[in-house]
């Protein structure tokens, strides 16, 4: 059996001390807190005015002994901020923000700044200005050091650093070797990178991918 006390007793800063080699016990796929957070998010995509969204977030905050609870309307930003606090070191934040970017574009619901996203172009924009892009990009613009001009750093060998992030960087480029090695099919490069061709077909169903594997040339 696993030793949950040892696994939870993380000391130091590497986030892995206290881990065991595992055992034969059942695995937890979700923590209850994440179930509340996911339900709150799903409710938001259906109806942002749903008054029970705050109840899901407050259930997580109350368990964490927080004294300040949500009282009124909750934004997708509130939900994502709660995810950041509750699931710190437990999820890939970059991937989660991209997932939510797609969900917002599909639902048509606004973010915390009132921006609405279009499924046709939320991930097909370029530039480093403050307008447009995906929800992922807007979070970067509001909360990070990217695209803010020169950043002065008082450290040996570091000065006048300028961090930039493009809207197209929501997705990374597919390595060219992966594209050219696939001689029986055609992989689509992501928008904004060399080799991108909007005419390259994208599979809609898993059956299409399976049929592509059977191509002889």
From TrEMBL:
GO cellular component: cell outer membrane
Top-level lineage group: Bacteria
Location relative to the cell: Cell outer membrane
Keywords associated with the record: Cell outer membrane, Membrane, Signal
Main subcellular location: membrane
Gene3D superfamilies documented for this protein: 1.25.40.390
Domain RagB/SusD: 16-193
Family affiliation: Belongs to the SusD family.
Protein name: SusD family
């Amino acid at each position: 059996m696993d030793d949950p006390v040892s696994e939870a007793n993380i000391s130091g800063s590497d986030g892995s001390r206290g881990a065991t080699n595992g055992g034969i016990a059942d695995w937890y796929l979700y923590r209850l807190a994440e179930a509340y957070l996911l339900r709150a998010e799903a409710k938001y995509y259906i109806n942002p005015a749903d008054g029970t969204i705050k109840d899901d977030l407050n259930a997580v905050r109350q368990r964490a002994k927080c004294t300040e609870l949500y009282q009124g309307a909750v934004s997708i930003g509130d939900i994502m901020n709660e995810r950041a606090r509750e699931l710190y070191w437990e999820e890939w934040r970059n991937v989660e923000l991209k997932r939510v970017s797609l969900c917002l574009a599909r639902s048509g619901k606004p973010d915390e700044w009132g921006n609405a996203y279009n499924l046709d172009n939320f991930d097909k924009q370029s530039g480093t200005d403050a307008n447009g892009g995906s929800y992922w990009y807007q979070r970067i613009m509001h909360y990070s050091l990217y695209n803010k001009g020169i950043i002065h750093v008082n450290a040996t060998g570091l000065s006048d650093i300028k961090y930039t992030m493009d809207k197209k960087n929501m997705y990374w480029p597919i390595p060219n070797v992966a594209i050219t090695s696939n001689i029986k099919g055609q992989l689509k490069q992501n928008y904004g990178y060399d080799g991108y061709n909007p005419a390259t077909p994208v599979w809609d169903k898993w059956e299409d991918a399976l049929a592509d594997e059977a191509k002889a040339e």
